[in-house]
């Protein structure tokens, strides 16, 4: 099936149901998730659909299905199952920016969680995070090092705060903890990013905590896979220019990459090692 035929079929399905998911479309048209996301990017750019996290809705957002996800926050497990190869590729590119002895910040999120796994071998690292899941990665690594008799020279600081459905610690306690810190580098995830809306999240308290992260280091790097492009959640925590470096993946359309390069100092496109979802 040609791309144009498949995209016409996607629009027809949306007209009938009001909402579709990436996984459903990939199964129906027997293509990869990445191919479907490119189709959705194309259709959204022409105003034929509205992208939301994990799928698409009709342009007016009238569906009661996926459109709710613009304001309802998906849980960590649901988010971690999406775009796994892309997140791993982004994490592999991000870890190259980290040097031994640095103090770094990792916001809560499934892409920063993927990065945390790759940071475990970097010596004398101090990691600050508002994610209990990320902190647990380093604590498990330390426990294993003690068993193996290896060095344990990483320090992990977990902020306090109120836990969100996506396992972020947010609110006044988290924000006050972050305001007192001076880090070398911060990595921030996002629910969505777009030219006009910037970087967004469906949780307003998390948006405020992410804005506080921006104040903790001279360099901040955004991590977001291409499926989040043109996805806009309830609260903006940063304009595109406020985070000069973005690491995403090669699934991003050329037109989007060109537009982002005009707004950013650095756009890094990571190449996933897996290009097709298993059937």
Shape designation: elongated
**Beta-strand percent range:** 15-25%
Cα-to-Cα separation, first versus last residue: 18 Å
Q: Give the structural class.
A: alpha/beta
Q: Rg, please?
A: 19 Å
| Spatial strand sequence of the major β-sheet | 6-5-4-9-12-14-15
Overall residue-averaged pLDDT value: 85
Discrete helix count:
10
By DSSP, the count of extended strands is 15
What are the segments in which pLDDT stays under 50 over at least 5 consecutive residues?
61-72, 147-151, 275-279
Structure overview:
It is a single chain. This protein is an alpha/beta fold. Helices cover 38% and strands 20% of the residues. The chain has 10 helices and 15 strands. The strands form 4 sheets. It has a 7-stranded parallel beta sheet with strand order 6-5-4-9-12-14-15, with helices on both faces. Strands 1-3-2 form a 3-stranded antiparallel beta sheet. The protein has a 3-stranded antiparallel beta sheet with strand order 10-11-13, covered by helices on one side. Strand 14 (245-249), helix 10 (254-261) and strand 15 form a beta-alpha-beta unit. Helix 6 runs parallel beside helix 7. The longest helix is centred in the middle third of the chain and has 17 residues, at 132-148. It is elongated, with a radius of gyration of 19 Å. The relative contact order is 0.14. Residues 61-72, 147-151 and 275-279 have low confidence and may be disordered.
């Amino acid at each position: 099936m040609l791309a144009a035929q498949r995209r016409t079929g996607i629009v027809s399905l949306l007209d009938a149901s009001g909402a579709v998911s990436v996984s459903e479309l990939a199964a129906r048209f027997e293509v990869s998730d990445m191919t479907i996301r490119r189709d959705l990017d194309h259709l959204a750019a022409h105003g034929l659909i509205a992208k939301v996290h994990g799928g698409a809705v009709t342009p007016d957002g009238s569906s009661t299905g996926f459109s709710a996800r613009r304001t309802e926050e998906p849980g960590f497990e649901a988010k971690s199952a999406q775009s796994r190869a892309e997140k791993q590729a982004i994490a592999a590119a991000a870890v190259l920016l980290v040097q031994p002895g640095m103090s770094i910040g990792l916001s809560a999120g499934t892409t920063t969680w993927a990065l945390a796994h790759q940071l475990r071998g970097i010596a004398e690292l101090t990691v600050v995070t508002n994610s209990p899941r990320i902190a647990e990665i380093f604590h498990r690594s330390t426990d294993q090092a003690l068993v193996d008799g290896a060095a344990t020279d990483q320090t992990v600081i977990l902020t306090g705060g109120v836990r969100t459905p996506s396992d972020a610690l947010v609110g006044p306690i988290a924000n006050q903890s972050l305001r007192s810190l001076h880090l070398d580098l911060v990595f921030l995830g996002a629910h969505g990013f777009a030219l006009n809306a910037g970087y967004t999240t469906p949780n307003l308290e998390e948006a405020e905590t992410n804005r506080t992260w921006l104040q903790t280091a001279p360099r901040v790097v955004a991590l977001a896979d291409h499926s989040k492009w043109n996805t806009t959640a309830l609260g903006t925590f940063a304009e595109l220019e406020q985070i000069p470096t973005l690491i995403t993946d090669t699934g991003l359309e050329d037109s989007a990459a060109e537009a982002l390069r005009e707004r950013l100092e650095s756009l890094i496109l990571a190449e996933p090692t897996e290009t097709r979802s298993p059937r």
